[in-house]
């Protein structure tokens, strides 16, 4: 560059008004994006939770069905006729003969210091009358 050629050299000054306008635009844009994310974020989370809820409801229905099936199976296994047929078939058990049956008796203390025996189907003795004071 020649010393007399000063027109080729241009000095630019920063426009402060343009700087402020760009800063304000960025700030407003950031606020808008933050607001949109603040609204959209919970909605996305709500949709995600609703999918999880539907999945858990399906699992609950399956578990209730399994529970119902297990209750039916338990009732079947507890059936006395099934137990009796298994006892006779697999274990070789037979019904007891008459002389093998014994009556169980219960010890009942008597009211006057005496004791008595009674069978299980007999009525229990009447309680003593009102006590004298």
How much beta, percentage-wise? 5-15%
Number of beta strands: 2
Number of helices: 2
Task: Give the strand line-up of the largest sheet.
Answer: 1-2
Low-pLDDT runs? none
Structural category is mainly alpha
What Rg do the Cα atoms give? 47 Å
Shape: rod-shaped
Helix content: 40-55%
Distance between the termini: 137 Å
Q: Which whole number gives the mean pLDDT?
A: 82
| Major beta-sheet overview | 2 strands, antiparallel
User: What pattern of helices and strands is seen along the backbone?
Assistant: HHEE
What would you note in describing this structure?
The structure is a single chain. By secondary structure, the chain is mainly α. It has a domain at 16-83. 54% of the residues lie in helices and 8% in strands. It has a two-stranded antiparallel ribbon with strand order 1-2. The longest helix has 62 residues, at 16-77. The chain is rod-shaped, with a radius of gyration of 47 Å. 0% of the residues are buried. The mean pLDDT is 82.
């Amino acid at each position: 560059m020649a010393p007399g050629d000063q027109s080729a050299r241009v000095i630019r000054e920063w426009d402060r008004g343009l700087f402020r306008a760009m800063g304000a635009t960025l700030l407003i844009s950031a606020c808008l994006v933050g607001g949109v994310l603040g609204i959209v974020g919970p909605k996305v989370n709500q949709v995600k939770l609703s999918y999880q809820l539907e999945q858990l409801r399906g699992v609950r229905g399956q578990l209730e069905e399994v529970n119902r099936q297990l209750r039916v199976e338990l009732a079947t296994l507890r059936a006395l006729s099934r137990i009796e047929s298994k006892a006779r078939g697999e274990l070789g058990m037979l019904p007891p003969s008459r002389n093998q049956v014994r009556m169980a008796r219960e010890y009942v203390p008597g009211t006057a210091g005496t004791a008595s025996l009674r069978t299980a189907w007999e009525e229990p003795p009447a309680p003593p009358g009102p006590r004298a004071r």
